[in-house]
Amino acid sequence: MRTPLVSAIAFALAGLSLATVAAPVTDANQLATTQLPRTVRPTHYDVSIAPHADKLAFDGTVSIAIDVLEPTPSITLNAMNMDFAKVALAPAKGKAVFAAPKVAVDENAQTATFTFDHAIPAGSYVLTMSYTGKIGTQANGLFAIDYDTKSDGKKRALYTQFENSDARRFIPSWDEPAYKATFTLKATVPAKQMAVSNMPVAKRKDLGNGLAEVTFQPSPKMSTYLLFFGLGDFDRATTKSDGVEIGVITQKGLTSQAQFTLETGKAVLQEYNAYFGVPYPLPKLDNIASPGQSQFFSAMENWGAIYTFEYALLLDPTISTQSDKQEVFNTAAHEMAHQWFGDLVTMRWWDDLWLNEGFASWLASRTTERLHPEWHTNLEAVFIREGAMSRDAVATTHPVVQHVETVEQASQAFDSITYAKGESVIRMLEAYVGADTWQKGVQAYIKAHAYSNTVSDDLWKEIDAAAGKPVSTIAHDFTLQPGIPLVRVESVSCANGSTTLKLSQGEFTRDRPDKKPLAWHVPVIAKTLGGAPASTLLQDGSGTLTVAGCAPVLVNAGQTGYYRTLYAPAQIKALQGVFAKLDPIDQLGVTADVWALGMGGLQPASDVLDLIKATPLDATPLLWDGIASDFSTLDDYYEGDAKRQAALRKYAISRLAPKFEQVGWDAKPGEDAPVAILRAQLIGTLSHLGDAKVIAEARRRYETDSMPPELRKSILAVVAAHADAATWDKLHEAAKAEKTPLVKDRLYALLATPEDEALTKRALELALTDEPGATNSAGMISAAARKHPELAFDFAVAHKAAVDKFVDSTSASRYYPMLAGGSLDLATIDKIKAFADKYIAPTSRRDAETSIANIRYRAMVRKERLPAVDAWLKKNG
Q1: What is the mean pLDDT of residues 320-333?
Q2: 176, 271, 301, 335: which one is catalytic?
Q3: What is the pLDDT of residues 688-721, one digit of tens each?
Q4: What pairs with residue 67 in β-bridges?
Q5: What's the CA gap between 756 and 856, in Å, rounded?
Q6: For residue 797, which of 812, 775, 811 has the smallest C-alpha distance?
Q7: Which strands make up the sheet holding 194-197, listed edge to edge?
Q8: I need a labelling partner for 496 at 20 to 30 A (CA). Which of 523, 617, 636, 851 fits?
Q9: Which are the contacts of 781, defined by CB distance < 8 A and separation ≥ 6?
Q10: How deeply is 821 buried, as exposed, middle or buried, from its count of CB atoms within 10 A (0-12, 13-18, 19+)?
């Protein structure tokens, strides 16, 4: 997977026309999208690469064993940014050789076509190509990362990133997931450097002149996007787990920062071997730590060679936090889940990407809960669901299973619907059928489709069989259509010690109040306070449910359902009265629903403030984390209206400051992990709200260099946000002097976060220079957009030719509109439209349209919802 950049708790090439035709799969009746002719199928690649890191170029030779399925005069495969020196075709057996073909490269289609002087008969052949390619500076294809070291100057390392469609930059290939094959990789490399790939080294040969030839063992049958190659001045630490060698590869001298990831890998592999019932099939599993960053992903699940940026894998004792530790675990668990869901069994086409990403996200969350219950991450399920619903409630949403026609659309499929909604739907279905039944179905699916490709219905078939009931009916409703069910509690009546609920089902949207609702089969779990839960399947738009007891009623008890719950005013008032007695996860879920429904106009927007007022000081830290986030969001809506914003800030600080006083600036012995995370969140939020005490103390600790490692990020963030010119210069000097990439990257990002617009402009200009490093520049512009979206967007568009060099090509159509998405200015919409019309293919404008929808929504909230908040603050502030 590409692990998304933003954690769940924080809540975010060429345009080709495709036909839906049969790709080469075992069953000819099974259809998959393909951009290539169906006449040829690869079975094995012998790849030989000689990278020239100093020249940002490489030489390659590949011999591909192919089956020609029907006579054809030409062979077309994927290739990009390549020049071909020689192309030859020969039968797999025998001596006959075809005359050299005509070579036609289509850069727009990202293909190379080899046309022969007569038709190639059906049969088995070897296609051999010698070619040259380019080494990039962003994470596409084979790319270089330059980084500082403390004692050995600047270094350059090489890595590959192929998902979704960039193996074609490295090997001429059938670069689509359904064209699985085996790979043998050989590389000519500097003798003193370490080369790494999916499989262990089979042999290493000294070539003299400071070079060596490294040959890796043949890979299992897999899709092209899972191939990996890395090269650099690396160290490797290892351990063993269930007979598999677990490794972590870092730049020299940093393996000590990878010990947590190493131990995580050991424990998680044992967990997954047991869960799937199919042992991990490769002899080794490396996790490769890379300096730098991408605007698109933080890690990638290459089979046996997971690639992860350092910030998501290493724990630097000078700056890493408890939150970082949990993210490192979650990222590793996610990528390791892909070794089965994605690598062993792969979606047939990008339409079913969620089979990779939603499942890996769900299994990582499940595994984090099981192996680290002290982190209480089970409560984060609500934040994950909210991240999905925020995207799913606007008109530009899409189904979990989505139709993908172009390479650029495939790149855009890596979003919160694929990841977070996919995960949330799985959690709901698992709760519906039971964990053991769900596992049984998953095991049957993995065993039935190992080393092959699938669509979603292949999974539902196995879950239906395991459950003995049509789970696929519910699954289809939640994956084949977009949107969020709205469950209304129409009435509540108590008799003879039981409460009967009348329920109806509509649809929740943020921007289409008159939309005709879609229909779902909705698994509903409800209970009275202190009572036992009861469940029903809400269908045909309405239903009833009887629960034990006559206390206030809670719908979606346990928060496994993917729907919004709307109570009548009397019912929500009753819940407010017992709010402190609800289970923590239900406190989070009720608050999230009340916030969304209030902002959507289905109940007073101020109702969420009643819940916040009812929240006890000793409530779960994650609830206080959510409250801090809500206050921060409200504050942003008031931006530019100083008087009204001051009223909100006064009340928000009055609620958060006592909690922060309880938590304190400094960690207490034996405190729970969520408390450490909340401390950082409260420092950031109180700073955002202009709390003079917090800002002054952060500045004092910065000036006296009394920043404990777990608070260093938080303190620096406060100082940077409220920096004057002298402080900004000091931070800039620290960034220039820093030799640890993990810290250096953080400092450059912070330079772009001041509230002072003039300083942000300086940071934007700095981002276009060579100083920050090629992978930091786009991140600095993104950081500036959080506070100054119009400024960042206008700057990026004005300097598009320069900015394009710093943006992954796979995310370009997403990057620019994203910068403006936080704007409150309706005039920005026309700017986004103009940009999209000029630079983005009509088939790839969903992210631009989503940014526009978000701006309209934010403007609506500011105009129509904040008056209710004003009135509440006047009464309660």
Answers
A1: 97
A2: 335
A3: 999 999 999 999 999 999 999 999 999 999 999 9
A4: 41, 124
A5: 26
A6: 812
A7: 141-148, 154-161, 229-232, 194-197
A8: 523
A9: 752, 764, 767, 792, 795, 796, 803, 819
A10: buried
pLDDT digits (tens, 9 = 90+) for 791-820: 999 999 999 999 999 998 778 899 999 999
793 alpha carbon, distance to own chain's centre: 23
Nearest to 404 by CA among 452, 455, 438, 363: 455
Task: Give the integer Cα–Cα distance in Å for 782 and 753.
Answer: 10
Mean pLDDT of 397-413: 92
Whole-number Cα distances in Å, 562 to 347, 426, 675: 24, 10, 28
Q: CA–CA separation, 567 vs 788, rounded Å? A: 38
Name the residue with tokens 């320069």. 802
Q: What is each CA distance from 274 to 279, 280, 423, 439, 788, in whole angstroms? A: 8, 10, 21, 10, 49
In DSSP notation, 760-806 reads HHHHHHHHTSSTT-TTTHHHHHHHHHHH-HHHHHHHHHHTHHHHHTT
**335 catalytic per annotation:** yes
Average pLDDT over all residues of the chain: 94
Digit-coded pLDDT (tens) for 581-603: 999 999 999 999 999 999 999 99
Q: List, in sequence order, every beta strand (DSSP E) within 427-513.
A: 452-454, 484-495, 498-508
- CA 623 from chain center: how many Å? 23
Q: Which amino acid is at 766?
A: L
Check whether the bond before 164 is cis (ω within 30° of 0).
yes
Buried b (16+ CB within 10 A) or exposed e, 440-454: bbbbbbbeebeebbb
Spatial separation of the C-alpha atoms in residues 255 and 178, rounded to whole Å: 36
Percentages of the chain per state (helix, strand, coil), in multiples of 5:
45, 25, 30
Helices and strands, number each (H, E), in the chain = 28, 30
Instruction: Name the one residue in this structure whose structure tokens are 């991450």.
Output: 377
Using an 8 Å Cβ cutoff, are 412 and 813 in contact?
yes
Indicate the burial class of 436 (C-beta count within 10 angstroms; 0-12, 13-18, 19 or more). exposed
Specify the DSSP element, H or E, that contains 141: strand 141-148
Condensed to tens digits (0 to 9), the pLDDT of residues 722-744 reads 999 999 999 999 999 999 999 99
Cα–Cα distances in angstroms (integers) from residue 697 to residues 683, 719, 728, in the given order: 10, 10, 18
User: Are residues 541 and 504 in contact, defined by beta-carbon separation less than 8 angstroms?
Assistant: yes
* Separation between Cα atoms, residue 436 and residue 448, nearest integer Å: 18
Sorted by sequence, the CB contacts under 8 Å of residue 798 that are 6+ apart come out as none
What's the residue count for the chain?
Answer: 877
Measure the CA–CA gap between 282 and 304, rounded to whole angstroms.
7
| Count of CB atoms situated within 10 Å of the CB of 97 | 10
Q: Which residue(s) pair with 306 in the sheet?
A: 287
Q: 10-24, 167-181, 742-756: which has the minimum mean pLDDT?
A: 10-24
